[in-house]
Amino acid sequence: MFKKDRISAIRPELEALVGAENVRTDEGEILMYSYDAGMARARPEVVINFTATGQVAPVVKILFRAGIPFLPRLAGTNLSGGTIPLKGGAILNLSRLKKIRQIDTAAGLALVEPGVVNLELQKALEPFGYFYAPDPASQKVSTIGGNIGENAGGPLCLKYGVTADNVEKLEVVTPEGEVRTLSYRDQGPDLMSVMIGSEGTLGIVTHAWLKILPLPAHIKTASAAFPSLDSAMRAVTRIISAGILPRALEAMDKVSMDAALSGKANPFPAGTEAVLIIELDGADAVRVKTELETVHKICSDNGCEAFKVAGDEGERALLWQARKGAYPAMARLAPDVLVEDGVVPRPRLPEALRETREIISKYKLTAGLLFHAGDGNLHPNVIFDRRDIEEVKRVKKAGYEMLKSCIRLGGTISGEHGIGVEKRVAMNWLYGKGELAFFHSMKRAFDPAGLANPDKILPVASDRSPSKPDLAGAFVFPGKSGLSPEARGVIDEIRLRAASGTRTAVTGLGTRLKPARIMEGAKPLDLAQLAGRAEIDRENLTARAEAGLSLEEFRRQLGEAGFSLDLPELKGSVGGLIASKVCPGIRGLLLGLEVATASGELLELGGKTVKNVAGYDAVRLFCGSLGAYGVIISATFALSAGKDRERAPFAEPAGWDDFEPGDIHRRLKKEFDPQNLLNPWVYRNI
Ligand SMILES: Cc1cc2nc3c(=O)[nH]c(=O)nc-3n(C[C@H](O)[C@H](O)[C@H](O)COP(=O)(O)OP(=O)(O)OC[C@H]3O[C@@H](n4cnc5c(N)ncnc54)[C@H](O)[C@@H]3O)c2cc1C
């Protein structure tokens, strides 16, 4: 059966906007955009090439009116099928939009178009003495737009954060063709953070204001050779828990090393099974040197057989070439490579690696293990030949088992490569029905017509898979049964109120929410009762605090245990500080939330890993949500080892709650709380 031609009718309008030569339906072009770096394949109906950012919104408006699906595409290096047009429609090729518009070192910002290649930006920043932290191994070709679409990471993200931590502001074209500027500092829920990692399913980024940093004055790079992966992983955990935060802490197993060093002299002792690349930086040479000595000692104590510090820039570059060249080296060994991307809490890395190796051997496959060890992010590179159907089946099964192993160990299914189409089914294993429904409602609020990169990230009907991993012994949020009696009481109360349509004023310690602001008729729900002792995971450097715990008391408990929280001096409860977003930087420390919806359903969002791009960033959406999207029950934070630093007093922004909801905020509210039961004065007329 022939597919209906949906493009001819709008072609004249499109051509008038971008030029006839940029509206392509010829077979060569269609074939070229039918695949990306992942395994999936599907044909678009048209490829539209853009030559100016201002063309994007009017083109999207035309497609929206015509009901034609579309997706933004850049270098196509994503590894999850994110740029495959599953429902046909238009590929929006933004790769010619590659101007670096401004480098403002005084403000610490660079304004760029989405098609700027990551490495080109680094090169442009270097003469100013600056760099942009996210450095994916694909940085020679992957672009800022694609990095934002996937929330890309790289070796430097251990110290400097992933893409989401390094974006100040975005200009976005909504799926209806409207232009919006979003920043995490905006009043109200953090829409900018939700856009990052949304794989083109919520809108299209047309400009990005990126945070840039001065190049560190001193960098030391070392390699450490270990007789086993286990001993290398033990060293990783010890380094981090000693309070040292390397700018990179990468690991390779013997298979990856042999591939990367093929044809070159092997600098490591015989019997080396794992190599760590450790890079430290800072402004103070003495401190960097002292940290390097400590790292050396930790490695030696854990069985390291050769610790070598790069003597000059050339030796350093060689080490990084080996690490960044390991994937292409594996790719040269076979026609195809599957790169997995699971994450586990760092202390669970030895188990995760053991299980990964067992899976690889069970399915008789060859894989090199590469990982961002400091982040607990594993990249098994499984080589195969897609023409061998039996082998493809084994690769797929092995991949799924690796993801299930990460989930069982308290981790997640993607740290940086995204879900796309290839891991949709695994979303069913990671999340419950409530969380998936929540993500679907986020998608509807941003893209009511469902045209932006459809059928990506969230499972569709055909992704049914009953075989959830066995979670015995895994870290999961306490879940309903593990909650404190007070938390259970709060959730039961919310459910009762929902049944009777009672409006609720969510109240913490009363630090900011003044009674005069509470709308008449809303019954207070006291969260100060949620103040149980914080649960500190010493090895993982994380802590879970109930929402009513004051920051002061949380800090006191952390201090007693030898940890600190990198936040300024602030008054109020943990939940209140997240919901009010008086300090927008709180988002950078938040790893997970337990939230009760307006109907009293408990959602477990995020978790305990420092990287997680599985699904939309609902955790950050709650920053600034002013208690109107759901009730925060507890939060999990990333900690720093060691004592609290001296903190300067923090000047809270005036009018933190003078929030005027925009259309997307309102649609989200309608999805989450259609009866406007929670803090109803925030959205008076939904
Ligand atoms: C050899 C190799 C090494 C890699 N190493 C890493 C690594 O170390 N770290 C890492 O994180 N990833 C890595 N990747 C994966 C990949 O490079 C990243 O996901 C990268 O960010 C994709 O960028 P891109 O320009 O290729 O984007 P594309 O693949 O074209 O697009 C990626 C996604 O973003 C969406 N998108 C594109 N443009 C926009 C826009 N303007 N607005 C909104 N959404 C948009 C797309 O629809 C798609 O869903 C690697 C891939 C390869 C092949």
Bulk shape: globular
Number of helices: 22
* Sheet with the most strands, sense and barrel status: 7 strands, antiparallel
**Architecture per CATH nomenclature, i.e. the level-2 architecture of the largest domain:** 2-Layer Sandwich
Notable characteristics:
binds flavin-adenine dinucleotide, Alpha-Beta Plaits, globular, alpha+beta, 7-stranded antiparallel sheet, 5-stranded antiparallel sheet, 4 domains, Uridine Diphospho-n-acetylenolpyruvylglucosamine Reductase, domain 2, 686 residues
Describe the structure.
The chain is an alpha+beta fold and 686 residues long. It has four domains: 11-93, Uridine Diphospho-n-acetylenolpyruvylglucosamine Reductase, domain 2; 218-329, Alpha-Beta Plaits (2-Layer Sandwich), CATH 3.30.70.2190; 334-463, Alpha-Beta Plaits; 479-672, Uridine Diphospho-n-acetylenolpyruvylglucosamine Reductase, domain 3 (2-Layer Sandwich). The chain has a seven-stranded antiparallel sheet with strand order 15-12-14-13-17-18-16, sandwiched between helices. Strands 5-6-10-8-9 form a five-stranded antiparallel sheet. Strands 21-22-26-24-25 form a five-stranded antiparallel sheet. Strand 8 (167-173) and strand 9 (179-183) form a beta hairpin. Helix 8 (229-241) crosses helix 10 (285-301), helix 8 (229-241) runs antiparallel to helix 13 and helix 13 runs antiparallel to helix 14. The longest helix is centred in the middle third of the chain and has 20 residues, at 389-408. The protein starts with 10 loop residues before the first helix and ends in a 14-residue tail after the last helix. The model has no long low-confidence stretch (mean pLDDT 93).
